[in-house]
């Protein structure tokens, strides 16, 4: 099907957005007049739509080739941008490429020349070497969170990719950090910088409190904090090391507190499932390293817990940036032992949070995620799953939550009180004539 024009108003309706914010408006105006742009904007400010909308205006429907390449530092950010692009419902093709994803599937997807390719530098370099797509037709490149890509060691791959884009016209770079240095290989000439980073260390809607812990490992204090303040709200707990993440997660499991861990030591499927369950409300608490401090766009996060003190002020800011976004309010708790000093970047008069109860009861999430072993490659979509769980599983509309469909599986959220009956009703049933295996994820 040939792509068709779609109005900006219709795109915003598809995204359930009433109007563009000032940053997105300026980005759209500046994009038309400038070939080299640097957007400095905090995560959660809508920068993905900020660069996708003006890029959309440069795409030529009559050209059946790849026109835009978006480079990102992580698979999570790649999938997030892909999701936004698809939600715009433009009819332009998009393909996602990243480490851990089957190369054969990506080669097959690239064979139809998607208009937009989103990928991590290492995997895109691999596809260039394989001649999986025609790099000569690309006129625009986006380095989203390019400073993070450099930090992750992708400089060589990024430079290699740039050398294979002979007809590049526009370069867009984004960062959520003020102090950035653009490498020479990017090739910018007359760079226009749009700076929307806040000058203060926290948003107006963020309330920071100090939690003093008498126990060195903080576990007992953390349990009391959960029972007192972190009930059924979405909470991210930040640690500096993956070993600490696992220790906290195991401790919570031992106390029957549902949680998910998230760090670089987990494989792709484990990380995707953890985020899926956190997004759909099957899990209210995500224990993580700073891998989750940037690049994830998960709405309605109420609380941030700095279980371990951030190494730098920049890390502290990025962690807090997960909450109190888009004008909403949020809480941040910094846990400190008697031996730990208050970071210099935190005001001395910051409120201390007193925990006057020993309550460690934590409400179970409203939803449970199911794992269906059929996905996009089996021609199964959200509509198929809704129909299946409604008709065969006998679920009402309000008993079925968010559904995410992957290549070979799907994760629907089902009301906790209905899980047993649903699994009983769908036992042995088929989707599109194919037998399926359905379990609790």
How are the SSEs placed, and which strands pair?
Blueprint (H helix, E strand, L loop, with lengths): L7 H7 L7 H12 L2 E5 L6 H10 L11 E4 L3 H14 L5 E4 L5 H8 L5 E4 L1 H10 L9 E4 L2 H6 L3 H9 L6 E6 L15 E5 L10 E8 L5 H11 L5 E4 L3 H13 L5 E3 L5 H12 L5 E4 L14 E4 L6 H8 L9 E8 L29 E6 L9 H10 L8 E6 L4 E6 L3 H7 L4 E2 L2 E2 L2 E3 L1
Parallel strand pairs: 1-6, 1-7, 2-4, 2-5, 3-4, 5-6, 8-13, 9-11, 9-12, 10-11, 12-13
Antiparallel strand pairs: 14-16, 14-19, 15-16, 17-18
Describe the structure.
The chain is of the alpha/beta class and 441 residues long. The protein folds into 3 domains: 8-195, P-loop containing nucleotide triphosphate hydrolases (Rossmann fold), CATH 3.40.50.300; 206-337, 3-Layer(aba) Sandwich (Rossmann fold), CATH 3.40.50; 367-440, RRM (RNA recognition motif) domain (Alpha-Beta Plaits). Helices cover 31% and strands 20% of the residues. The strands form 4 sheets. It has a 7-stranded parallel sheet with strand order 3-4-2-5-6-1-7, with helices on both faces. The protein has a 6-stranded parallel sheet with strand order 8-13-12-9-11-10, sandwiched between helices. Helix 2 (22-33) packs parallel to helix 3 (47-56). The longest helix is centred in the first third of the chain and has 14 residues, at 75-88. It is globular, with a radius of gyration of 23 Å. The mean pLDDT is 91.
